[in-house]
Design brief:
The complex is a heterodimer of chains A (about 200) and B (about 150). Chain A has 7 helices and no strands. Chain A is mainly α and about 200 residues long. Chain A folds into 2 domains: about 40 residues; about 160 residues, no CATH class. Chain A is flat. Chain B has about 150 residues and is mainly alpha-helical. In chain B, about 65% of the residues lie in helices and about 0% in strands. The chains are: A mainly alpha (about 200), B mainly alpha (about 150).
Chain lengths: ~200, ~150
């Protein structure tokens, strides 16, 4: 009786997650289709040949900000020994590592027009008009962004390799290490995200 | 199960402070994994970050070294011509991170090590790496060394 109830409960949860994903997918697809058909979507991306790359870099970074924030909260729960959504943390750190890789890849792509040796490129503009923006803030941002990938990957690897064993008392320091990895990932990512947004506001590619 | 792992069998239900009742593994479940694999993972991440920090600083100090790092990136990375020595710095991070992980993982995975020492080394390395990629530090040291 009890087992039957649990099975029903599990299948209901699975069905709910699938239906939620389906509803979200349908809503996003429908909205995107309507916008693409009825609105001048390319105008909002801008005239640059790298506009799509810049938009995708910003989009993946924004999604990473959301996932990293959720992970930071779950990492705090893990550190305090009060985590219940353990599989969610495993999934979230995996998504963090994947998104960090994708965001860095798009970042590399749009770094090409940023540092192009033409007077109108953002790098040339900053070096002429406000050199500190490039020489301090952008330089720091481009390196801290790279730190996010190994940190998230290490956190995800440890969580998957150890599974729920990480909740044992003997792995208390490893739980602390995971919390630190995720907190540092968040720290470096927020620096890169904030400075990227600020630099783009001053001079976009 | 490997012999080294057999020496660390959990003998009682695992509990988490603050969570009522047993959580996760019990004596009937597989044996506990030593913490060496976790320490190898985060130390390798730190080594990658630190290696890149050192290379970033060295590139600022030496134009010739920067050209060599650029050549390293151009050797494999698509679009490296457009992003300059940054491609080589990324390459160094990847090589140092994944290379050190490939070495540390098999060395440490069956060992239960001092997690406090591991974390201390990790945080020290990350602190140094962050300092090395903070541009005012390059400017301070390189300006003083050129005087």
């Amino acid at each position: 009786m009890n087992g039957s109830f649990e099975n029903h409960h599990e299948s209901h949860q699975e069905w709910s997650a699938l239906s939620l994903a389906f509803v979200m997918g349908a809503l996003v697809s429908t909205s995107a289709l309507i916008v693409l058909i009825t609105a001048p979507f390319t105008k909002i991306l801008g005239p640059s040949a790298f506009a799509l790359g810049a938009a995708l870099h910003g989009l993946t970074a924004f999604v990473l900000l959301v996932v990293a924030t959720v992970s930071l909260y779950l990492a705090w729960r893990l550190y305090m020994g009060r985590i219940q959504a353990f599989p969610d943390l495993q999934l979230a750190t995996t998504v963090m590592a994947t998104l960090a890789f994708i965001t860095i890849t798009f970042g590399n792509w749009i770094y090409i027009p940023y540092r192009a040796k033409i007077p109108d490129s953002p790098r040339s503009y900053f070096l002429t008009n406000m050199p500190e923006v490039h020489q301090v803030f952008f330089e720091f941002k481009e390196f801290t962004a790279l730190f996010t990938l190994p940190l998230a990957t290490a956190a995800a690897f440890i969580l998957w390799r150890y599974g729920r064993q990480i909740l044992a008392d003997r792995h208390a320091r490893t739980r602390t290490a995971i919390a630190i990895l995720i907190a540092l990932h968040f720290f470096y990512f927020v620096i890169a995200f904030g400075l990227g947004a600020a630099v783009t506001k001053l001079k976009a590619i | 199960m490997k012999p080294a792992e057999a020496s660390v069998v959990e003998t009682s239900p695992v509990t988490v402070p603050g969570v009522p009742g047993p959580v996760g593994q019990t004596a009937a479940e597989p044996q506990s994994i030593p913490n060496g694999a976790a320490i190898a993972a985060y130390l390798a991440a730190m080594i990658g970050m630190l290696a890149m920090g050192i290379v970033v600083f060295a590139c600022e100090a030496s134009k010739a070294f920067s050209e060599k790092i650029y050549a390293l990136g151009k050797g494999w990375m698509p679009g490296a011509d457009g992003i300059g020595p940054y491609s080589g710095k990324e390459t160094i991070l990847l090589l140092a991170w994944l290379g050190s992980w490939a070495i540390l993982h098999p060395l440490l995975r069956r060992k239960h090590l001092d997690g406090y020492l591991g974390l201390t080394l990790f945080l020290a390395g990350v602190g140094i790496a962050t300092t090395l990629v903070w541009p005012p530090v390059w400017h301070f040291f390189l300006d003083h060394s050129s005087k």
